[in-house]
Amino acid sequence: MPIKRPALTVVPSPDCIEVRGARQNNLKGFDLDLPLGKLIVVTGPSGSGKSSLAFDTIYAEGQRRYVETFSPYTRQFLDRMDKPRVDEIRGIPPAIAIEQTNNVKSTRSTVGTMTEINDYLKLLFPRIATALCPKCALEIKPESAKSIVEHVFAQHSGEAVLVTFSVPVPAGTKPVDFFSFLQQQGYLRVWLDGEILRTDEPTEVKRLHAVVEVIQDRVTISEEGRSRLTEAIEHALRLGSGKLAIRHSESGYRHPYSAGWHCAHCDVDITPPSPGLFSFNHPLGACPTCRGFGRTIAIDLVRALPERSLSLADGCVKPFQTESGADCQRDMMKCAKAKEIDVKMPFDDLPECDQQWVLEGEDWQRSASEKRSGEDLWKEGLWYGVRGFFRWLESKAYKMHVRVLLSRYRNYTECPDCRGGRYQPATLNFRFAGKTLPELQAMPIGEMLALLVAADGRRRADHFSSTETAASGSESIRNDSTTEMLAGEVRSRLGYLLEVGLGYLSLDRATRTLSGGEVERVNLTTCLGASLVNTLFVLDEPSIGLHPRDTGRLIRVMKSLRDKGNTLLVVEHEEA
After folding, report:
1. Which helix (DSSP H) or strand (DSSP E) does residue 255 occupy?
2. What is the pLDDT of residues 141-153, one digit of tens each?
3. What beta strand segments (E) does 304-437 contain?
4. CA atoms within 13 A on the CB side of 60
5. Are 278 and 126 a contacting pair, CB within 8 Å?
6. How open is the CA angle 133-139-143, to the nearest 5 degrees?
7. What is the pLDDT of residues 26-74, one digit of tens each?
8. Is pLDDT of 436 > 60?
9. How large is the greatest C-alpha to C-alpha distance in the chain, in angstroms?
10. DSSP 8-class letter at 134
11. Which pTM does this prediction carry?
12. CA distance 173 to 357
């Protein structure tokens, strides 16, 4: 017989969550007050109603009320929860549930994107990274007239130098006509074949190079000539399209400079740094081959050669053992005997060069642009390789049975261009502490945090020990408030991950490969980094899968979240 509750006059308390008559699932209609701003643990044997109280009642009501604050149009895009079986709940703040479930299936989601560290890195990297030429590995940075003057004074003080800029010579132009044009523009000297020639005097030059260096001015490097040197450099930069050279007037030694993202020594342009260049989810930064996924669908040689303990004669190449592949098996055996390869030795025991010959064919040592097609090699009686066989099949993919055959040997494999790094080659021109962004994101979180802290310490020491360093253009960028804020966010979020025992993960680790406990702790650190306040966090056994020595660190993290003004409701069995 149901028991009637006496009518009570309850004054709402602003400092606690009041639950009245909770009957969800196996709860028996009890009342409960939970203080706000505290770390509360719900424990008990299995089936006692811990999750029913924490998730199905308190979290469900908090989430439902939060969703109800949005407009009807917005609510259609949000997951809505059913109203729990409870008489009344008062004083409940917006709720967030952090459960031990990994529902992420996308390969684009990584630990870095999930914690938003990648979003800060793409803004931070253009400010702190050093650009290097992909050919000569020298540093590239846009020069200004002021920075060039300072460098020239440091290198050639007291010496006479020539300030030159390059002018392209139109095809078929005679030297006399070109020199006459320069005279009309007021330029009387050029540097040609290691000597200075005047444009207003007869010359024996019969043919000009494609580019001629025009001398803007000859200056002796001294404080009295600083303004003249600055003026000459400004004119040379403008007329040379942002490029000039400083030549020693006696030795002829040439030092080029560029005002853009351009290697003046190799005449190579690089893509200017921007946030999009350092994001694999942006068209500018994603590898064009895999489009930022890090993997491509291609022929998997492990499927093509599943039993490498077999010899070539015993049929280690699986697609050649069918009736349609018998001709290829005969071609391989014939060419292998001609090349004196042991066809009865297990494939794994063959020398590396012989294995590559079987897989890639006669052209395995050539670059991709130099390789001949499989059909051309076949016509010449040469071995086209297992890959050549599949390339020939792909040209016949308009046939249904060929597509079926190819599907048996295709698989997701590491992108051959970015090697799984997800970024395009232009991103790899920028390095911080000697590492590219993909290399940083592949490091364990503990090592990456130590590297960032050490680099920040060196930067601060350099900044305070040298006024010249602090006044330079590159260091002023590295010491501004925006850079400090971005670097601080990255370090703090990495520190949170380390605190909850996830220092062994890397930022490029795919989220879908994480365990439920790892996902829960990653989500916990994401909430810490977001600096949420006045929020109810409901956690489901966050200590699962955590080493006992890290339990104390996890508790410190949860207390830190509580100290920011949040309420934590934790379902847990761990006594600590």
Report:
1. strand 254-258
2. 898 899 999 999 9
3. 410-414, 430-431
4. 17
5. yes
6. 110
7. 888 888 888 888 888 888 887 777 788 888 888 888 888 878 888 888 8
8. yes
9. 122
10. T
11. 0.74
12. 52
Whether 522 and 104 have beta carbons less than 8 Å apart is answered as no
Tell me how far apart the alpha carbons of residues 105 and 108 are, in angstroms, rounded to a whole number. 9
The burial class, CB within 10 Å (0-12 / 13-18 / 19+), for 392 is middle
H/E element holding 243?
Answer: strand 243-248
Which two three-digit tokens encode residue 537? 């966090």
CA distance 435 to 440: 6
Query: Helical H runs in 49-144?
Result: 50-53, 60-68, 72-75, 111-114, 117-128
The three state secondary structure string of 277-330 is HHCCCCCCCECCCCCCCCEEEEECHHHHCCCCCCECCCCCCHHHHCCCCHHHHH
- Quick check: helix, strand or coil at residue 216? strand
User: What per-residue confidence (pLDDT) applies to 471?
Assistant: 38
Give the CB-side neighbour count of residue 509, counting CA atoms within 13 A: 18
Sheet holding 430-431, edge to edge: 139-140, 130-132, 430-431
Q: CB-side exposure of 453: number of CA atoms within 13 Å?
A: 11
pLDDT band at 476 (very low <50, low <70, confident <90, very high): very low
Locate tokens 């259609």: which residue? 76
Distant-in-sequence, close-in-space partners of 256: CB < 8 Å, separation ≥ 6: 243, 244, 245, 264, 265
303 contacts 318 by C-beta, under 8 angstroms: yes
The whole-number average pLDDT for the span 164-172 is 88
Pull the structure tokens for residue 164: 């030159």
376-380 mean pLDDT: 73
Residue 411, strand partner residues: 298
Mean pLDDT calculated for residue range 459-471: 51
Q: What's the pLDDT score for residue 155?
A: 87
Q: What percent of the chain has pLDDT over 90?
A: 15
**Is the Cβ–Cβ distance between 287 and 417 less than 8 Å?**
yes
The amino acid occupying position 205 is: V
- In angstroms, what CA-CA distances link 238 with 258, 267, 322, 393? 11, 17, 69, 56
